[in-house]
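In response to the reviewer comment on reproducibility (Comment 2.3), we provide here a single inverse folding case reported in full, input and output, so that an independent group could reproduce the run without further information from us. The C-alpha cells appear first.
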C-alpha cells in the first residue's frame, strides 16, 4: 500500500509539473505575442517619425530660404531713403527754392 501511494504521489507530482510547465509555456507565449504587438507599434511609430523628420527637414530648408530673403529685403531697405526722410527733404528744397526765387 505504501508503494502504491508513492507511485500515485509520483504520478500526481509528474502531472502537476507537466501542468505547471504547460501554464508557464502559455504565459510566455502570451508575453511573446504582446512583445510582437509592441514591436509592431514601435515600427509604425518609427515610420511616422521618419516621415515627420523628412517634413521638418523640408520646413527647415524653407525657413533658411526665407531668412536669406528677409536679409536681402533688409539690405534693400537700408539703401532706400525712407518716405518721411524724403518728405522732409522735399519741404526743405521747396523752402530754399522759395528763398532763392524771392531774392531774384
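Designed residues, in position order:
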Amino acid at each position: 500500500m505504501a508503494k502504491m501511494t508513492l507511485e500515485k504521489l509520483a504520478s500526481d507530482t509528474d502531472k502537476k509539473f507537466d501542468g505547471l510547465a504547460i501554464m508557464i509555456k502559455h504565459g510566455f507565449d502570451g508575453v511573446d505575442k504582446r512583445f510582437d504587438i509592441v514591436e509592431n507599434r514601435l515600427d509604425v511609430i518609427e515610420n511616422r517619425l521618419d516621415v515627420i523628420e523628412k517634413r521638418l527637414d523640408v520646413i527647415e530648408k524653407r525657413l533658411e530660404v526665407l531668412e536669406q530673403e528677409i536679409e536681402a529685403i533688409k539690405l534693400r531697405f537700408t539703401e532706400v531713403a525712407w518716405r518721411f526722410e524724403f518728405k522732409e527733404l522735399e519741404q526743405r528744397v521747396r523752402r530754399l527754392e522759395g528763398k532763392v526765387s524771392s531774392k531774384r
